[in-house]
Every structure is written in structure tokens, then in C-alpha cells.
Amino acid sequence: MEGKKVRDSSVVMAQQMNPQDANPAGNVHGGVIMKLIDTAAGVAAIRHARSNAVTASVDRLDFYHPVFVGDFVTLRASVNFVGRASMEVGVRVESENLLTGERLHTSTAYLTYVSLDKNGKALALPPLILETDTQRRRHGEAKTRREMRLAEKTHEKACQRDQDIP
After folding, report:
1. How far is C-alpha 66 from the chain's CA centre?
2. What is the DSSP letter of 51?
3. What does the alpha-carbon distance between residue 146 and residue 12 come to, in Å, rounded to a whole number?
4. For an engineered disulfide with 113, which of 26, 53, 58, 152 has Cβ 3.0 to 4.6 Å away?
């Protein structure tokens, strides 16, 4: 199977935040940002797989600054790591106050997607071609997160079998 470059599946998505996205104080709901993150990451995953891809987990989602009604939000998503049938997609979220021009890094998230064939079975993915030092760094960090995630799953399964372990 021929590999794919990170840039071939990368996504840039943007939209202005409106009153229906926010609470009465004008702060955009975290869930709205989370949905945008999942949408951008999902597009990157489907572009890489060229098949259906579903969210398997959100490894990390950090909010650094609030987003307000009227802010212009830009999301950048790219595939960081590819396994046999799963991949990690990183998403960076920035907000821009259109009146002042101030831009802030508001959120970062790492999501895992599984590619599926037409019957809903896991589908093998093309390998990821890394071209830059940044891509290689992100790949290494994603590999570490994957190892930690797999270790946590093993522990969780053991806990599910033993009802006495909290």
C-alpha cells in the first residue's frame, strides 16, 4: 500500500462564533469547540483513509483561553500517527477577535480514529510519510501517547474483571 503525506490529509476549517454557540455571558460552549474539533479531525482521518473513519477516543483536549461570540475560530488538523487501522489526528484551535486583531491559541486536542470498510470492519491504513522535523516530532509524541493509551486500556480491562479494584 502506498504511503500518504501529512499535507495530503491536513485540514483548515474556520467559522465565526454566533450567539447560539454561547452561554448568556457570551462565552462559547466547550462542547461547540469540541464538535468543531471532531469535525476537522474526522475530515483529516477520512482524507487519509479514503474510507469511513470513526472517533475511537479523545486522548487529550485542553482549553487555554475562552472563545467569545464574534470571535473567528480557525482549526488546523493533521494526522500525526498511523497504526494498522487506527490513526491519531492532532487539532490546534485559534481564535481571533476581529475588532482588535488579537489571536490566541485556545485549544489543542488529540483524537484517535479507526478506519472502517463498507461492512463496518477495521480497514488497513496507508502508512504516513513524514517530510519535516515537526512532523517527525509530532509522530514521536503521538507514538508515546499511543503506548500510554494501550497500557491504560489493559489496566481498565483488568479493573473490569476485578470488581474490587476502583
Report:
1. 19
2. S
3. 24
4. 53
Residues paired with residue 95 on neighbouring β-strands, in sequence order: 73, 104
Cα distance between residue 159 and residue 147, in whole Å: 19
Between the CA of residue 25 and those of 1, 31, 38, 51, what are the distances in Å? 51, 16, 25, 41
Residues 80, 62: Cα–Cα separation, whole Å: 17
Residue carrying C-alpha cell 490513526: 87
Statement: the pTM of the whole predicted model exceeds 0.85:
yes
Q: Reduce the DSSP state of residue 57 to 3 states and report it.
A: strand
Alpha helices, H only, 18-132 = 30-49
Domains by residue range for the chain, with CATH: 4-161 (3.10.129.10)
pLDDT, one tens digit per residue, over 85-110 is: 999 999 999 999 999 999 999 999 99
Q: Which residue has the cell 469511513?
A: 52
Distance set, CA 163 to CA 8, 153, 156, 160 (Å):
46, 16, 11, 6
The identity of residue 61, as a single letter, is L
